[in-house]
Amino acid sequence: MAVEKTEKAAPKKKVYHLKKVDGEWQVILREGEKVIKKFKTKEEAMAYSEALAERQGGTLLVHASKGKNKGRFIK
Length: 75
Fold this sequence. Notes:
Layout: E1 15-21, E2 24-29, E3 35-39, H1 42-56, E4 59-62
Parallel strand pairs: 1-4
Antiparallel strand pairs: 1-2, 2-3
């Protein structure tokens, strides 16, 4: 008698990216090309994207916008 395993693959965790482009902070979903929302300040963008990631069960990656770490993740 064979026992079948019926395991479902875990859904991918949503990863939101926060980065500065052309003077504006943008929230983008990983693998997405569409900008979810734009902000003038980093503080506004952080508050929105942290709440969004928490509601959706995802994570937030913040890209550095200046200096030697530009483009790297800082969170």
